[in-house]
Amino acid sequence: MSSQLEYGTVSSPEDAQQLGKLLSQCFGDSLTDWQPYFESIGQDNFRCIRQAGQVVGGLAIYFMGQWYGSQLVPMAGIAAVGIAPESRGTGAAYELMKGTLQELYDRGVPISTLYAATQVLYRKVGYEQGGSRCCWELSTQSIQIKDRHLPIQSITPVGYEAFQDLYSQQAQLNNGNLARHQALWKRVVESSNEQPIYAYLLGSENQPEGYVIFTQRQETGGLLIGIKDWVVLTPAAARRFWTFLADHRSQVSRVRWFSSPMDSLTLLLPEQTAKIHQQERWMLRIIDVPKALKKRGYPLSIDTELHLQVRDDLFPQNNSNFVFNVSAGRGEVTKGGKGEFCLDVRGLASLYTGLFTPHQLQLIGHLDATTEALSRATQLFSGSSPWMPDFF
After folding, report:
1. 227-239: b or e for each residue (b if 16 or more CB lie within 10 Å)?
2. What's the whole-model pTM score?
3. For labelling, which of 69, 141, 152, 312 has a CA lying 20 to 30 Å from the CA of 368?
4. Domain encompassing residue 160
5. pLDDT-derived band of residue 220, with 50, 70 and 90 as boundaries?
6. Of 281, 312, 327, which marks where a domain is finished?
7. Is 219 exposed, middle or buried (0-12, 13-18, 19+ CB in 10 A)?
């Protein structure tokens, strides 16, 4: 059956209409929601799989970047992967993802990230868990921080330009944070349901030290503040952030925000009252092993060499031995070497992001390495736990 499947672009209004109807059914959305979504990403960034000339599945690609080791790595975010119900079980989803990854490899994109409805499919094509998206929740009554020394001012979020530079300063310090696609920025600053959006700069207008963008909605027990985006760049901004939220406690009972599983902001709270309300992991695929390793950043103090042996069933170019040299925070990769650090491309994904340590990956059988190689890899891929606040 898979031999009858053909991967391609969305090349006509008829293709777009078929794909919109199909994806709306897959995700339970209204067709009226399809056109704004389609336009925000752009027709050129949708791909489809056809059977006998009919569109039976498709997906969207966000071309953006992701920070690792304080270096921005070009990344393709995969979203809205859907297959018509009558075409499921035919291999259509696999062929769609395989075709997409081959195209991305040919275009020189080193990594890809997605949120998985089912991990089985994506593991078949080389994705593995890469990082976390955590929704935290906190009672406003429990914050108990009062520091109003830093000014705070309301601004109208007419566009994301006022926030982009501040966001980038924070994002580059956190493994997994995105260099956001324009469509993702629009979700932050634009309302999808006519719900008011509130935005505040922390600090002076000329030298802001952070910001918070949020909505409010009524729930049982009081209002809930849902933070759409936040940046805190200084200790003073962190204290002002919590004070500002605490000052809503007369009407707002709870606040939710997205962050890392180990959110350092919660260290300022007097007690461990902040709880993770919801957590999910996104997945990452190393598409081009040498390029991905070269683009990433590494600890500046390390000067070492790691002999990798990578297994990749999809890309023969990755299925090889590599000598990985790191100096002054940057890596170089050449083919060859002794293969002292052996893993498949899925294990490499979790190592690359820093979600799991080499010791943890070896414990569950995702890699096999000499003691010395294990120690070198542990140093190279150390850093903050990977996370992102965005969903796509």
Report:
1. bbbbbbbeebbbb
2. 0.95
3. 69
4. 134-281
5. confident
6. 281
7. exposed
